[in-house]
Amino acid sequence: METYNTFYKLLYGEVIKPSDITRLDFFIYAARFQPTFAILMFISSLYFLGIIGYFIFKKEKRGLAYYFAFLGGGLLILSFIITNSSTVGGQVFFILFLIAGLICIITSIPVYCKILNQIKMRITN
């Protein structure tokens, strides 16, 4: 029988009874083996982070470009951390993190290029 590391085990020691398993353990298990709801949660959380970043940096476009680049870089790092996952959910999340990270970085590039063009126009005028 395969054993799974739990966050409870990392924090408090051996799991003795079923109530020792934390909610985070259930989420990780679900993400590894039945990732549908975990994927929906990730997509909605990413959308929420994008909207928050947009409202915070609405007037400062350079900050928005840095925000999306930083968010995309974090997602790319997460994707490479789970790149060798043996479970279906891990492979799905690798692809999802990779695509989302690339989309965030690609989104930040035109915003930053627009800022550079505005600066260039100010200098030439």
From TrEMBL:
The keyword Membrane applies. Keywords: Membrane, Transmembrane, Transmembrane helix. InterPro entries: DUF4306 (IPR025440). It comes from Cytobacillus firmus. This is Uncharacterized protein DUF4306. The chain crosses the membrane at residues 37-57, 64-82, 88-113.
